[in-house]
Every structure is written in structure tokens, then in C-alpha cells.
Fold this protein.
Amino acid sequence: MSGLTRKKVKVRGKNGRTFQRSVMVKSNTDSIVRQHWKTAAKAGFAIGAATGVGVYGGAMAGHAWGHRAGSAAYAKNKNSDEYHAKVASRTKAGVYAGGLGLGVGTAVGVTRTRAYKQMATAARSDQAAGGRLALIQQGASYVGGAAGALTAWGTHSAAQRIRERFRK
């Protein structure tokens, strides 16, 4: 039943009363995409931005955690491979934890909104429209990820400059 959607129509009965009946009609892919593209873009951007912020924040936290964990190895030998390995592994763990935490948390929040549920229902009814909406959402998620990471980086850089100004 691909390419068909349910549509409610008003029907007048024999006694003159009107009631609603559900009828299967041919779906118009372009109208579904036109109706829901903003929702797909907003959802993708929100999820991407949260993931970008989480990845950057997780990298910073993991890096600091790695320095603390490897400080004993660093005190013994300044060029210790063990120290650099600990910092790298903890930074990687922070990236995964931060990105997954914020990305999944935001995705759960976004998918519970009424607009997203309506878009998902419309996308299920027409696979071509669903594919186009998925591409829109994925593209917006890439843009959001870059925007989130740049925002986190800018905020972190500004905070460091302010901190250095007060140390003088």
C-alpha cells in the first residue's frame, strides 16, 4: 500500500446527518515534504548542536581527567609514553560520553514533541517523503554539530581569556 495515505472525509448519510469516514487516497510526496521540512531541519539541528557541544565538552573534561590520571607517570618521566596514552584514552572516552550523552538526551526530547510525531506519521505513510525528510534532518544535524562545537569552543576560549585577564 505504498503511496497511499489515510484521509478523513465528511460524508452525508441517507437521513441527512454528516459523519466522517477514513478513505485511502494517493499521497502527494511534495506536499508532505513541504509541510514538514522545517520540523526535520529543526530536529536535526538541535540534535547535532547538542552532540557538538557534548563532544567538545567531553573532550575537554576527558583531557583534564587524563592529565590528573597520568600525573604520577609524568612526574617520573616527562616524555613518558604511558602518560600520553592515558591522556589520549581519557580524552577519547570523554568525547564518546559527552557526544552520546547530550546527543541521545536531545534526540529523546525532540522525538517526544507533537510536531515531530506528526512528521514521523506522515513519513511512515509515504516512503519517498520519509527519505527526503531523513536527508534534510541528517544534513541539518551535520550543520548543527559544527555550530555546537564552534559555539562551545568560542565560549571556552572566551572564558580562558577572561580568566587570564583576572590573574594578572
